[in-house]
Structure formats: structure tokens, C-alpha cells
Queue: 4 jobs
Job 1
Amino acid sequence: MDIIKRNFFCLLRTGALNDFTTLEPMSPYKWRLVMGMAQQYQVEGAVLKGVKSHQYDRGIDFPNELFKLADFTQGEDQAEAWNLSNRWLNKRLRQIRMKEPCSSNPSMETIGLLNLLVKGTREMMKGASMVSHTVALGQYLRRQNDRINKEKLAAWVGKTHLQGMVQLQMRMLVEFLDFQAEELPLPLPMRKRDIKRIAQQLNQPITGKEGDLHFWQDNNGLVRNNTQALRRNLQRALRLLPYASLETLSYFSHRFILSLNELEE
């Protein structure tokens, strides 16, 4: 990780999680690149808070532009019930959400975390950047970690076959927000191949759109498609397949069928 990204994540940790770390001196040009990353990944509020917390650090000279960042960070709605593409798995997910409030010892904080993890899975499928989601996930765990029922969460993740996708999201917290193993709600096996996939996902620009896989008919009646978008979707599907095979196949099959349905009869 280069110095620009190291300082970017240091500011994120300070602003979003109140973890104070040492910044490395950079030129005004590189600090402006940090500003651009904050805007691109929609974490301006967290980075601005970090800048204000470090503005008097010795050897750190922020350009004035950094103090003009919008005081806003794109967050996640923990209450929103995001769905899975696989009907069988989504049925299980709905049952979990319906039964938990009526159980003898309900844990709605664990349901909120499950919703966030499902949202993160969907975002990875779309190819969106995971920076703002990782920040929101880290904030949620710092606030609610003592109330998370780890046994229930492990059982729910197993029922929905999302163990691999959850481990990827946990690994993002460790690698980029410096979370410790004891802060994670589930054990995290170390797999070197995860790091490359995480770096690819975090470095994605905010262009992941579910509608970018598009087929159409030309004037001669021939079916055409956006070959670059198709290639990106296939590459992403192959990267994620080892982590959630059922959901990955269902999601991309669904996207493919929807795109074909757009063709004029």
C-alpha cells in the first residue's frame, strides 16, 4: 500500500472509529489526491473529521482544500432488509428475519449486522467500491459488538451460505481499518488469496451499476451487447465464485436473463 492510501485509511480510522494513528508527511499534491479519494468513495465526512483531528500534528501541513470537504459520509441503513438473489437462500433469510423478533431471546442488533453483511455481499456482486460499506460495518461493530450474538450470527451465515463473503468483509476490516481478531464476530481463517480480491474490490471506482450488462438488437436483427461490461461481469463472477457459489451463480444468471428480456420482440 502506497503512502497516499496509508494516510487515507489513517484518516478514515481516526474520523470514523476514533483510532488515532500517526500520519506520514506528504506534499500538498498528494493530500489533494487523498481528498479526491474521499469524494470518490463517499467518505468525506469521516476524512474531514480525521483531518481536523490531525491538523496540529507536527510535520503535517494540510492544504486548505481538505477543510472544505463535505461533512457527510455515505453510510448504510442497517434496518433495511436487503435480499439475496438465490430464492432458496433468500427464503431462509426471510425466515430468520421473521422468527428472530418472536424468539425468547431476540437479538435485533445481530439482525442489523446480518443485514449489513447481506448488503455488502450485494455490493460486491455489483462491483461497487467497498470503502464506505467497510467504514459503516466497522462503526456498527464498534457500537454494537457487545450485543452481537456470535452463535446466532454463525448459524445464520451458515444457513445462507455466505461464510466466504462474510470472511471477505471481515478481512477488509482487518487489513484497512486495523481491526483485531477479538473484535470480529466470527473467526477469520487466513487465506493469502483473499488479500488480492479485497484490494481489487476496494479499488473499484463507484461505477458498479446493475444495469451495465445490456443486450440489444441492431437494424439487421442481430443481438449485440456491451462486450466490456460482459467481460467485467464474468471476471467478477469468477473471482467471487469460491466465496458464495450459489449466490454468485444466481445473481449473475438473474442479471443475464433480465438483460436478455430487454430485447425487443
Job 2
Amino acid sequence: MPGLQGEKAGTPPTALDRITTLGGVAVLLLVIATVAFASHNRGLQDTVSAGQATLAKAQTAANLDNTLIRMLTSAAVEHDDADIKALLAANGVTYRQTAAATAPADTKTTEDAK
């Protein structure tokens, strides 16, 4: 096409040709850097997700442990089981026995009396 700069063989590139080429190279480098950062970021997200899954499993296990400890403690107190008390004490579990407020079985409430 007539009128384009640098179209003839052997003519040196103009300043505009150099600027355009440098701009194209800069854009290409920025695209490569963006892809590299996105890939690295995805790897970090996978690592964080795996850590969160591990924490969720640990929390579930801790809840189960706490439930088992409460049940063992309750059984030890209700049945005055020395073996369970010794097991709990050996594992660092301490507890306080509180007086349970229970109503006698034969007492009727005001709604039952009506």
C-alpha cells in the first residue's frame, strides 16, 4: 500500500515504527506477566483452600472430642466409676461436680393439677 512508512526495502524504521514495536513488546510482556501472576495466585488459592479444609476437619474432630469427654465425665459422675475418672484424670481432664436440681418424680406441676 502506498503511503505506509517503512514499506520500501532498505529504508530505516522511523521513530513511530520503533515506538509501535516497543509498545507491542511491552504489551506482550505485560500479558505474560499477568498470566504468570494469575497462575501463581491460583496455586496460592488452592493452598489456602486445602488449609481451610484441614481446619474444618480439625474443628469437627474437636467437637467430637468435646462431646465424648462430656459423655465420659457424665458417666463417671452418675455411676461413680473410678476407672473412667482415672482415665479422664490421666488425660488432663478435670471437672467439678455440681448439685443437680431435680424435682421429685411424684410432684405435679400446676398444669397437671388442672
Job 3
Amino acid sequence: MWWRVRLSQQLLSTAWEKLNGHARHLCTRLKSHPESSDYLTWRQQFFQRRLRLGLWLGLFWSLIGAVGGLYSVLVEIEELRANVLTIYGDAAIADALRDLIIFYSLAVLVVLGACLVGQKTRWGQRCPVVWFLLFACSLNEFLGQVIATFFQIPLSPETLTFLAIAIIIPVHWRLHLIAQALPIAYYGIVYPAIGLTTLGTTNIYQLYSSGKLVEIAWVCCVSVPCCLSIRTVEAIGNGSSSSSASVSAFGFP
């Protein structure tokens, strides 16, 4: 019997050493290296160009969504009330949803428009981080969550937006991490703290039902690879800039 215990201890020790080695290797790969001035200049210019592109795309997408949402809550309001009554057991939710969609649609369009205008100003060009956070929080449902709180309607984070923003603006991974953490934290911490865990009289939409727990886990699984991939892109870009600078220092074009 003793040899089985000893064998189990050796296997556990070997597995732990391998896991610890992989963790140290990953931390070393993700460790920030000194960033060259050429790379910083390129990243700043690239960031502003892609942010401008993202703002226009976000404004176009939000405009389409606003038209569809307003049509549903204004033209087809009776059908919406019937569906809400069937699903949630309270037709009054349809009126709250109507007011929410109207207010939220206008708020998103105003924020994105203000970002487009503000980015062109002298102060806006010096502080693009502010416009990025406003842009990301307008599209990843964080702004919608804050607004929907006043209408007693919980909203979950928009995971596809995480991926879309990461593809359009693959730099500044820390900003992406902040923008992704805000709606997740609001959904998982703020809603339970204020008691907004149900919608209507039914209990199948409780915040911590199995479906919602899977949804939160999916959001976390999406956000982590996004930030890791952005960090990898930045490391590659920084390495390329450093290599180019080193080659130029030896007189090569």
C-alpha cells in the first residue's frame, strides 16, 4: 500500500513541477519589455486611426440597431406587450423596455457622435484613451447596463463586441481588459448588490440560474483570449520595431 501512496505523491509532484514551469514560461512571455520610441509612435498613430474607424463602424451599426429597435417598440408595441406577457407574466415590462430602447438608442448615438467630434480636437488627440473607453463601453452593453438599471431590466455583456473591438483595435491590451471587465463586474456584482436578479414574475431569468452562470463563464473565456492575443500582437510589433532599429543602427536600410 505504501508504494501506491509514494507513487501518487511522485506523480502529483511531477505534474505540479510541469504546471509551475509552464506558468513561469507564460509569465515570461507576457512580461512587458522596454518599448522603443518608434514602436510607441507607430502604436499611437495606429490606435487613433483604428479608433476612428471603429467609431464610424460603431455609429453605423448602432444606427441600424436603433432603427430596428425603435420600430419594434413603437410600431409593434402591442405585439411586444403580448409576447412579454406570455414570457415574463407582466405586460408592464414592455413599456419599460420601450422607454429603455428609446433612451439607450439616443444615448449611444450621442456618445459615439461626441467621440468622433472630440477625437479631432487637440485635447482629444492627446487623450485617445478616453474616447476608446467611451466607444467600447457604448457597444459592450456597459452603458446599456447602467441605463437599464433605472428601468429595472438586467442586461448581460455583449461577448461578440469584445471580439469585434479586439479585431479592429489590436493594441493597448490593458484598455481592452478594463473595457471588458466593466460590464462583467456590473453584471456579476452590481446587479446582485442592488437586488436586480429577476425580470418579471418568472424565476427562470434569475441572475445566478445555470444558464446565466454559463453565460458569465463564456464572457470570461472570451475576454481572456482577447487580451492575451492583443498582448501577443503588441509584443510582436515591439519586437519588429526593435529589430528594424537595430538593423538601421548598423547602416542597413
Job 4
Amino acid sequence: MTAPPWSRRVRRLLFLIVAGLAAACDGGPKGPGTRDGVVEGPAKLGAVVLEVTGIGITGFKGRGDTRAYDAVVSAAEGRHRVVLVDAAGGLIEFGITVEDLDAEPPLVTVLVAAGSDNQAQLSTGVVVRLDR
């Protein structure tokens, strides 16, 4: 028994709809944007100095009460030095502005940490988390 001629058209139409939906699912945000990050320590933090290395980094932003100051260390390597200061102390929130959110996340290293009392702290236990 053969299928009616309209069933081929229905199958083709369903195939085109499924193919179109699959093409529309691109896997997430692309293009420029900001990756949010937080710095936490075992004690109340007032400031940290970070080294941030990555391709396509265009700037840094403080979030909440945090202020961000940055300088390019090596443009060829995409290496930046960032000072994050939160006078109230506690959770230090910041953003990294990038050219492409789909690119690999930057590598972040804590160089120096200080408490809200301006006393240097060991960077052991100070953790930086970036969103993907």
C-alpha cells in the first residue's frame, strides 16, 4: 500500500520545521558582554589585586559597593592587573567586559589580598568565581 501524496508534503514540512528549530538553537549568548565574578576569602576582604589573562578583554567594572581599577600589563598576552576595592568589606563583586561571551573564560590569579582593616592577608583561601 502506498502513502497518500499529501503525506510526503507533511513529512517535508515537518523536516523543514525541525531543521529550522535546530538552527535557531545556537547554544547561548555570543558577542560582546560582561562576565560577572566574585572574590571571597576566609576573612572579610576590603581589596584584592588580580592578574587577569584572556583574549578579548575590553574592561572591568565594579559591582555593588566594589570599585575597579585596571591597567594593561601585556596587550600581546591579554594580561591585565586589576585592583578591586570594597570599603565596607566582604564579598567583592566585579565584571569583566569581553568581546565574545562564547570565548574561553579568562584566567584569574589573586596576587594580593587585604582585609577591610587595610591589613595584608594571605591569598590562601581567597577564591575567584566567574560565571560562564
